[in-house]
């Protein structure tokens, strides 16, 4: 499944193969636990190479390796939509919720990178970033239904990290001011937990 997902997200699947978004959504509905095991390839697709500011770039140039292609906006949005579907499919599955909780910190870290690299979305950067931030909100709401105290602590910590990143982005770029509402929504969610 991981290889199929990688091929699908990279756009290398033949049109008539039957491997499409609906195939994976159906897979997530039937077995969300396995879906969470495919989270890393989905999250990698959230980022474009332009946002990768790692110091490894010099090493890559020295070794003569080619860079991986930049993920297109369509591929990135497809990955966001698929993670959203996985979160929704996990709502009534206890094991899947445990995996969601386990991966919340990773999801938050990726979302912070998305916020930091907001300009890679192009013209509709606020709208697209908002769609990504909604994934945290959905996850938090589902996890808070379980009423476990360690869930509340985890969501509070990760929510605070994300709110700080959103506030910094709004201060840096005034066009991002519409995301202040997302930051307030996450803050309310954490306070009411």
Biggest β-sheet: count, sense, barrel? none
So what's the overall shape?
flat
| Distance between the amino and carboxyl termini | 36 Å
Query: What is the H-and-E element order?
Result: HHHHHHHHHH
Rounded mean pLDDT score: 82
> Rounded to an integer, what's the Rg over CA atoms?
17 Å
The percent of residues in helical segments reads: 55-70%
How much of the sequence lies in strands comes to: under 5%
Low-confidence stretches: 50-69
> How many DSSP-defined strands?
0
How large is the count of helical segments? 10
Alpha-beta content class: mainly alpha
Summarize it.
The protein is mainly alpha-helical.
Give structural attributes.
193 residues, single chain, mainly alpha
Report on this structure.
With 193 residues, this protein is an all-alpha fold. The protein is built from 10 helices and no strands. Helix 2 packs parallel to helix 6, helix 7 packs antiparallel against helix 8 and helix 8 runs parallel beside helix 10. The protein starts with a helix and ends with a helix.
Q: What's the topology here?
A:
Elements: H1 2-10, H2 21-30, H3 32-37, H4 39-44, H5 56-63, H6 73-89, H7 94-116, H8 125-144, H9 149-172, H10 180-191
């Amino acid at each position: 499944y991981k290889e199929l997902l990688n091929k699908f997200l990279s756009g290398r699947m033949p049109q008539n193969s039957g491997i499409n978004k609906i195939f994976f959504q159906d897979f997530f509905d039937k077995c969300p636990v396995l879906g969470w095991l495919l989270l890393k390839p989905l999250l990698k697709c959230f980022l474009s190479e332009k946002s990768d500011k790692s110091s490894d770039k010099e090493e890559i140039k020295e070794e003569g390796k080619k860079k991986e292609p930049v993920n297109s906006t369509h591929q990135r949005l497809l990955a966001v939509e698929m993670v959203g579907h996985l979160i929704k499919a996990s709502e009534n599955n206890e094991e899947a919720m445990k995996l969601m909780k386990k991966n919340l910190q990773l999801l938050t870290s990726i979302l912070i990178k998305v916020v930091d690299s907001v300009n890679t979305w192009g013209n509709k950067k606020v709208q697209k970033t908002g769609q990504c931030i909604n994934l945290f909100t959905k996850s938090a709401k589902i996890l808070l239904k379980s009423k476990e105290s360690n869930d509340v602590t985890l969501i509070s910590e990760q929510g605070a990290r994300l709110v700080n990143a959103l506030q910094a982005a709004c201060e840096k770029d005034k066009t991002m001011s519409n995301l202040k509402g997302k930051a307030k929504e996450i803050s309310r969610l954490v306070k009411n937990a």
